[in-house]
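Lab manual, section 2.4: Encoding a predicted structure.

Procedure: take the sequence of the chain (458 residues), apply the prediction step described in section 2.3, and record the output as structure tokens. A sample record is shown.
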Amino acid sequence: MSRRSGSMDMTVGSPTKLLVVFAIPMLIGAVFQLMYNMVDTIVLGKFVSAEALASVGATTSTTGMVIMIGNALTNAVSILVSHAWGAKDEPQVRRIVGGTLSVVAVCSLAIGAASVALARPLMRLLNTPENILDGATLYVQIVCGMYIAQMLYNTSAAVLRAIGDSRTPLAFLILCSLMNIALDLIFVLGLNAGVAGVAWATVISQLFSAVLCCAYMWKKYPALRFERNALRPGGDLLASFGRIALPMTAQNLMLMVGQMVISRVINGFGSDIVAAYTVGGKVEQLATVIISQVAFSFSIYAGQNYGAKRYARIEQGVRRALALLGAMTAVAMVMMLGFGRSLALLFVDAGETAILDAAMEMLRVEAAFMPALCAIWLYNSALRGMGLIRPTVVSGMLELVSKVGFSIALSAVYGTMGIWFASPLGWIIGLAMSGGYYYFAHWKERALQADAAADGGV
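Recorded output:
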């Protein structure tokens, strides 16, 4: 297959080195993405009001649901492309890129229309406090209504990462982040646009970066240039895409339904606890950003090696990744426990003691369970990369039921402390499924048998 500089063949070389080298641009990109998300939070919390901060915080589960649906679609694109790239099937790569791009665009437009129409009823369903309802509704309608902007970027970035190029998406993500920060300052501080200004800053910067990323991908990689007729995906491609995307979408929806139940419980404790949950979540993201990017990059490693039929190499990679992620998790736990309050002060004033105290309660609980989160990220990434979606769906269902049940039951007895325990307990139960499947379901033996059967049928 003809390849251009910038892509990475993950079927040869040291797994640890490959994961680190591939993850570094993703990490830098994640830091910039966190930066512009956190600038939104800082600008609203420091320069507008605590209510404005809580308005955006109350949308976490709603915008998260939309993002998770989009992630299922782009993950399916990434898996299909990485398999074809690992097998060195260039015509199939082009066919997949063109066909899945059309599917993603149609789905994005449908998501946007539904978000505009259902934002207020959904925020009311989540028991959003009246003093932040209008701001939360407006934020969802703008950011999720224009979701096609983010999906254009995410899809092109997913294709590039699938062929081993994690540097190009980084460049455009940095551009998006810097542009978003500048627009935040202009819209909020200059034009006094409040929550709406933060939302439009996000959408405009995403759309600008998406267009540039798509154009660069087309120019840089001839192997990705599809013919116009590839935009009409055939039944076999739709079936392959649906086989991966639909279960992942169902899984993500179930997880987000659980998150929405937790949000409803949190909203019932008032806007201070909503703000604390928002701030605690941002600090957790800062502490775990390295872990998440290394773990998520493993799906590309697994996908390319699965396409190349190098199954033992996937097992070797998991062992190396566990050691690497274990060390990173220890650092994250120290960061959350030792520096959590200082980091929380980035988002709220020191006088907001109720918000800060509740945020620290959340961080102490989640830090204790961080190894479980690290492990579930890795095993789910490995299984998804190989196209083994069903066990991750079952894992998600178990995690969902656990989160919902624990958030309701424990909060009724222990108040907000019960809420903070709901997600970590869900991680442990979900991990039992995905980790158990990886080690005891004989996936490698079944893959070898399928390969032997296919060779025998030729």
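Check your result against the sample. Residues 271-307 form the longest helix (37 residues).
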